[in-house]
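Record 1 of the preview.
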Amino acid sequence: MLFVFHDDVLEVDGKRVPVKELSFAEISSQGEINGIEIPRMDAVIEILSKRNEPVMIEIKHLFSDAARQKIIDITAERSDWQLIASVNRFLTSFPRKSRKYWYSQAKKVGTSVYRIRRHDVDLFHSSRTIFHLIWNRVKWWVNR
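->
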């Protein structure tokens, strides 16, 4: 289930709980209790699709192949829509053993995942081998 919520945690019964540990029903319900609407990605995409402006979708956590495919498909044929992620979230969301496959899926539809704050850095391309990943991380650290 893809949903739109920027924070990594949600307050549940006075405790901060990582959203990745909750079901969408729990997230939605707790959002209502906290006065926050947490929409499904489909609802947001429907609204944004009617607007003629660039869109950046930040990837936080993708835990299934269905979610990975869905997020890639969302940007298909939308050259002004971009997927972004931090390096660590990218590496977690697109595990090394299947990263080449997801890179090819993204390329098929004309998209990729770009580094937050460095939107010219294609994370699939930069992580294609362990050597490239290490080298690029050193370069990114030096160029902060």
